[in-house]
Backbone:
């Protein structure tokens, strides 16, 4: 079984920055893709950023140039550096990884005050 523990969410003023972390633990042989999604009440969960096993990345248009996803394979951890945050970025952020199966974190709240 694999567990994901997220950290780094919180309250920030518009224009500020936060760094989210998601560490995977348990029986892990290798992690393929890793990513971050976010969800606000009444809306579907949306992809924010993904980093593939080879290191390539992909971002939602709304965060390009502001967010950076990275990973530390030795630590089984994925990060999301979020800069120039706006109130529209406020959401619950979920990390996601794929091994043989897909796993989700429990979510971490990001609140951006205007």
Residues:
């Amino acid at each position: 079984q694999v567990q994901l523990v997220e950290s780094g969410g919180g309250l920030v003023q518009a224009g500020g920055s936060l760094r989210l972390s998601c560490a995977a633990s348990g029986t892990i042989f290798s992690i393929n893709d890793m990513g971050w999604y976010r969800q606000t009440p009444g809306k579907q969960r949306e992809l924010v950023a993904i980093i593939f096993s080879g290191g390539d990345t992909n971002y939602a248009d709304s965060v390009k140039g502001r967010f950076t996803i990275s990973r530390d394979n030795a630590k089984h951890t994925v990060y999301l550096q979020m800069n120039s945050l706006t109130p529209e970025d406020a959401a619950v952020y979920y990390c996601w990884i794929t091994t043989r199966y897909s796993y989700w974190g429990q979510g971490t709240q990001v609140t951006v005050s205007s």
User: Anything to note?
Assistant: The mean pLDDT is 96. The CA atoms of residues 87 and 112 lie 5 Å apart. The two ends are 40 Å apart (CA to CA).
